[in-house]
């Protein structure tokens, strides 16, 4: 029996069965095309404030487990699926997706045509939507939706409040948390790095006082122009410390160097996006989740070099600075979930850190 409805700002209505929390929620409706990894998607902070549509038809079939979280608590506003499994089958499963969403006060709607919804978003672009009970009138919901604006403080919501340390014996890396996925931290600790995680608004002077060997700019939600303090921080450190940016960190590095970013029609969200590396003429499958992109033409006269492009639409997927040890990618090399083709980028970053250390020592002893 249908008891919940999804209403889009263009007036389109989908009716289905509710699961998870029963509270009404609004947000930007987006879609992800991954076939697996729904737990990592739900707990990815880059989805903060969004209602996520999963195009794969059966969600929850292997349950929820303790190992595949990307954050302690999810930040999505709502979940839209074709079918939510009530009886997961997996030896690691601890609970159903319904129980998990209820525990975190996240509403879901099942039983609707998610392929049709995805086509609407592809044609119209991302738009606002509301998940509400079926007994509420559509005109009143649309009026409410018209008066609601999307928040622009998602990075503040998802970033750590205070700095903390994950000890290690290797390179000292400052990780600037814009809404970090744990997969990034996991890749650094796997390589024995001593990681200091700092908030998004940690200033350049404070970061340099930590004497880092390298700086990691993480993924995160929202428009990169909504965090101007982070752009200024990058300007203050780029000449002194090697930098590796991922997703939002990639966009912020571009803005700090004078390039521009733009909002995409419906973004890239999935685990099968092909990216071509222009330097080694190889193509990789990548995991992606972003609604903004760096404007290719704006890279001129910024000191940045285009290194990778998306084969589907030729948007910017990688950049590197011509003069300073800094590079970034738009996709997720930590691959949670998704292919592990580009995991080597973490090794490239640490190799760059080591080479920078060697140059600094040679200058000091010259």
Could you explain how this protein is built, in words?
With about 375 residues, this protein is of the alpha/beta class. It contains ten helices and 19 strands. The chain has two domains: about 5-145, 3-Layer(bba) Sandwich (Glucose Oxidase, domain 1); about 155-365, Rossmann fold.
Radius of gyration: 21 Å
How far apart the termini lie comes to 78 Å
Q: Give the helix proportion (percent range).
A: 25-40%
CATH class of the largest domain: Alpha Beta
How would you classify the helix and strand content by structural class? alpha/beta
Could you state the order of secondary-structure elements as H and E? EEEHEEEEHEHEHHEEHEHEHEHEEEEEH
Percent of residues in β-strands = 25-35%
Largest sheet: 10 strands, mixed
Quickly count the helices: 10
> What spatial form do the alpha-carbon principal axes imply?
globular
- CATH topology (fold) name of the largest domain: Rossmann fold
**Strand order of the main beta sheet, please?**
10-12-11-13-14-19-18-17-15-16
Strand tally is 19
Family: Belongs to the CarA family.
InterPro entries: Anth_synth/Amidotransfase, CarbamoylP_synth_ssu, CarbamoylP_synth_ssu_N, CarbP_synth_ssu_N_sf, Class_I_gatase-like, CPSase_GATase1, GATASE
Enzyme class: ligase
Active site: 247 (nucleophile), 332, 334
